[in-house]
Specification:
Elements: E1 24-28, H1 33-44, E2 48-52, H2 54-59, H3 61-70, E3 72-75
Parallel strand pairs: 1-2, 2-3
Length: about 80
Amino acid sequence: RQARDLPGVVVLEGPRAARRVALPFDDGPESVYTPLVLRTLRREGVKATCFVSGARAAASPRLLRRIIAQGPAVAPPAPGA
């Protein structure tokens, strides 16, 4: 199934009985795609972990606050990532 708000992105589905999936997002916040991803996650009632770039977070504090409010986690990217 393809995400409605993110054309060209492939979304794979697993067994519905498990009702769990890991959704990591790296190198945000980004002004175009981060709001689209957040809107899609909220609409679908899904939580994700966002790995944010310090420089991008500092440049987009409102968007960072939105990511934090939607939770459940925000983390720095892995060293060398």
